[in-house]
């Protein structure tokens, strides 16, 4: 009998279940008359191995023989054909530029312009939670408006703000991919928006306490705890929660609090810091806070780090209040507009907002 090419295409189809040699280490292993798999037995580095060459009859006898000969050629050159195939698969996967990988690279490149280098996760989380589980393993070049529509439609109306952020950041990822030289559809997110339609959800502003009720609430914060002191200073200064909760003693000089520019929302790429003059009452709060400071932070949490925004919010919630800490900025802005003659630019500056002009 011939040493190789023992089988014929017609004969292979009629063979019963079992192992059937074609020669040269190539075997047809059938589990039924109509189904089986091709296996090549090779010896590499003195060790015998079996290499799958595909399913029968999807892979024909001719194709199996071709694959077997390519593997034998590698063995003759001292190359393990199984490891070589695995390496090629890994290389091919890397060359695909999956959306998951492009998104991570895009996030990495934008960290410098995000508050705290994006460590809070707010920039990446809409993608990580709502997009990448469904589309992350797609090559970015294959992502189209239908994929995006199907991915975001479950939250388009129920979590409108999050869906909007996910769509916007996905658009940035596609631009990043284009900058890498990949052929992507830069209009995919705009087309997806057209398919998704107008959102029914209305954005609800964070509840704020009417400014006339603020003094009474302020007076009730009299326990001297980190939470009470933080809320008092939040009300007096009108800053956002993040810079206040992360207030460090090295940011205070005399009666001026200097907030690092990168900690101020709305000051993208800011190089200048934000200086806040402190009133006598604010200084008294700081004097008490210094006593409970930990690692230089004036408002530490009970366990580690600093107090969270949720801690202050829950305290207000326990009192049956709908208002939340961030709402005190709105209370301050209303007071400036209704009870003072402060110019618009001054009122906006009090809140750390960037107005029309550089001045």
From TrEMBL:
Keyword DNA-binding: yes
GO molecular function: DNA binding
Ranges for domain Tyr recombinase: 204-359
Gene3D superfamilies cross-referenced by the UniProt entry: 1.10.150.130, Integrase, DNA-binding domain, Intergrase catalytic core
Regions crossing the membrane: none
InterPro entries xrefs: DNA_brk_join_enz, Integrase-like_cat_sf, Integrase_catalytic, Integrase_DNA-bd_sf, Integrase_DNA_bind_dom, Integrase_recombinase_N, Phage_int_M, Phage_Integrase
Keyword Transmembrane tagged: no
The family this protein is said to belong to: Belongs to the 'phage' integrase family.
Protein name per its UniProtKB record: Integrase arm-type DNA-binding domain-containing protein
Organism of this sequence: Paracoccus onchidii
């Amino acid at each position: 009998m011939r040493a190789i090419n023992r089988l014929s295409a017609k004969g292979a189809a009629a063979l019963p279940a079992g192992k059937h040699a074609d020669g040269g280490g190539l075997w047809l292993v059938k589990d039924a008359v109509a189904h089986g798999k091709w296996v090549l037995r090779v010896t590499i580095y003195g060790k015998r191995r079996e290499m799958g060459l595909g399913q029968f009859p999807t892979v024909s006898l001719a194709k199996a023989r071709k694959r077997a000969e390519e593997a034998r050629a590698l063995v003759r050159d001292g190359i393990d054909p199984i490891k070589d195939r695995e390496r090629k698969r890994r290389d091919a996967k890397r060359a695909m530029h999956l959306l998951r990988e492009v998104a991570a690279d895009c996030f990495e490149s934008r960290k410098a312009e995000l508050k705290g280098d994006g460590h809070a996760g707010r920039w990446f989380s809409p993608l990580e939670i709502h997009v990448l589980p469904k589309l992350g393993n797609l090559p970015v070049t294959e992502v189209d408006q239908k994929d995006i529509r199907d991915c975001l439609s479950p939250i388009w109306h129920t979590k409108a703000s999050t869906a909007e952020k996910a769509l916007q950041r996905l658009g940035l990822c596609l631009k990043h991919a284009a900058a890498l030289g990949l052929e992507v559809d830069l209009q995919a997110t705009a087309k997806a928006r057209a398919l998704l339609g107008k959102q029914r959800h209305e954005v609800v502003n964070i509840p704020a306490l009417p400014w006339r009720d603020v003094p009474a609430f302020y007076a009730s914060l009299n326990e001297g705890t980190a939470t009470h002191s933080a809320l008092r200073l939040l009300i007096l200064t009108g800053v956002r929660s993040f810079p206040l909760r992360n207030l460090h003693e090295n940011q205070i000089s005399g009666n001026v609090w200097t907030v690092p520019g990168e900690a101020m929302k709305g000051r993208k790429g800011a190089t200048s810091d934000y200086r806040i003059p402190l009133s006598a009452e604010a200084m008294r709060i700081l004097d008490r806070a210094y006593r409970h400071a930990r690692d230089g932070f004036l408002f530490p949490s009970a366990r580690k780090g600093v107090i969270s925004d949720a801690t202050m919010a829950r305290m207000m919630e326990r009192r049956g209040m709908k208002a939340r800490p961030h709402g005190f900025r709105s209370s301050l802005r209303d007071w400036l507009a209704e009870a003072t003659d402060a110019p618009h630019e001054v009122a906006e500056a009090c809140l750390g907002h960037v107005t029309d002009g550089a001045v």
